[in-house]
Amino acid sequence: MWSDIQLDRRKGGILAAVVRLFVVTGVPVGSKAVAEHLSEPLSSATIRNVMVELEQEGYLVQPHVSAGRIPTDKAYRFYVDRIVEAIRLPADTRRFIEESLAGEGDVPEKLMVRTSLLLSQVSHNVGVVLGPPLEEKVLEHIKFVRLPDRRVLAVIVSKPDLIENKVIHLEDDFSQEELDRAAEFLNGEFHGWSLRAIRLDIFKRLERMKAFCDRMVSTVATLFRWGALGGREPGPLYVEGTDSILGQPDFGAPDVIKGLLKAFEEKVKLVKILSACLETPGPGVWTLIGRENPASEMRQCAVIVAPFRYRDRVLGALGVVGPMRMEYDRAITTVDYVAHLCSRLLSAN
Fold first, then answer.
1. pLDDT by residue (tens digit) across 85-120?
2. What is the rounded CA–CA span in Å between residue 73 and residue 54?
3. pLDDT tens-digit readout, 243-254
4. Rounded to whole angstroms, how far apart are CA atoms 217 and 31?
5. Nearest 5°: CA angle at 93, between 129 and 281?
6. What are residue 138's phi and psi, to 5 degrees?
7. Distance between CA 313 and CA 341 in Å, rounded?
8. CA distances (Å), 343 to each of 95, 146, 301, 313, 316, in order?
9. Quick one: the chain helix, strand, coil %, rounded to 5?
10. Which residues of the chain have pLDDT under 50?
11. CA-CA distance, 44 to 49, in Å (whole number)?
């Protein structure tokens, strides 16, 4: 929304000082406090004039006539894009992260649960992890089991060592023998493919056949069509630490707390936000601040997310949700560090 934000050096320095001071104190920042934190010697009057200009430009607001000023989401965006620099996490924090996740890579589901809790503990915000969507899972083995009432149980084993059971409701009825043949065909032809790629290839084969239709391919296509195997179904979402931010003064209003709780409980809006990160090309950390959040309940929040990988394939996303008033340099570095660590643990299998 504000990726083209530009300020001159003096305005930028004063705005950065306001953001830093407000993050630490949580109270409106006055010109005298800013003067004490600038490398350039400026009078309080000069700083006040610049702060008025910044307020007129939408970077600061003054909650009361006699009070100092507080940053807007536009100010935080400027701060993240222009001021924040990579920092190195303290050695004890890195050690805590590594020890907390050690050995969890063998069971990806456990790793994701543990990671969401760890992110909350380290950042003192809400930790979120979005697991891999079904369509991106890499097929290792699949088995179909015939159930009553034209239902089929699909047991999908994918890399890295994920097992998922999915019940498929069909209009057609298939014998167990036909289902076994379909599974054998998939395991032989598409081992190592993503379910999305398999789905696309199957329907291309059907199109090429036109005049005749092989029962095998028809069976597989039906299973993919009605069961939505390889469709755009999001992965599981793990959320930990909602209580860690609800007590913060940034979320003091009852209607704000109610909206946030609803968003965390329903999870749909969080899934959409994290899924958007997976669709954004390139590595690195992705941030949404204030009004950049598509969910109205989260317009007072900042979301910091990064993808994690299994070898060269993006598997899911992880991050933190907290108030706009957060230590962005530490939060961004933490999310990036944990994402790289999870990728390394998963890819070691």
1. 878 999 999 999 999 999 877 788 899 999 999 999
2. 13
3. 877 777 887 777
4. 72
5. 40
6. -90, 120
7. 15
8. 17, 36, 27, 10, 10
9. 50, 20, 30
10. 211-212
11. 9
Q: Which two tokens stand for residue 281?
A: 């090309």
- Compute CA distances 81 → 190, 213, 239, whole Å: 43, 56, 27
* Bridge partner residues of 144 (DSSP): 154
Look up residue 257 and give its two tokens.
């707390």
DSSP 8-class letter at 175 = -
Residue 16 structure tokens:
């950065």
Q: Residue by residue, what is the 3-state secondary structure of 56-112? A: HCCCEECCCCCCCEEECHHHHHHHHHHHCCCCCCCHHHHHHHHHHHCCHHHCHHHHH
Chain centre to alpha carbon of residue 176? 40
> How many residues belong to the chain?
349
For residue 104, give both structure tokens. Answer: 């969890």
Whole-angstrom distance, CA of residue 325 vs CA of residue 5: 19
Q: How many CA atoms lie within 13 A of 323 on its CB side?
A: 22
How many C-beta atoms lie closer than 10 Å to residue 217's C-beta? Answer: 17
Give the chain's domains with CATH numbers.
9-83 (1.10.10.10), 91-132+235-347 (3.30.450.40), 135-227 (3.30.390)
Q: Residue holding tokens 């620099």?
A: 85
Question: What are the backbone dihedrals phi and psi of residue 296, each rounded to the nearest 5 degrees, phi first?
Answer: -60, -30
Q: Please, are residues 133 and 232 in contact by the beta-carbon 8 Å criterion?
A: yes
- Residues 80, 86, 89, 90, CA torsion sign: negative
Residue that the structure tokens 């600038």 belong to: 38
Distance from C-alpha of 277 to C-alpha of 263, rounded to nearest angstrom: 18
CB 302 within 8 A of CB 286: no
Lookup: tokens for 263: 């968003």
Q: How many CB atoms lie within 10 A of CB 243?
A: 9
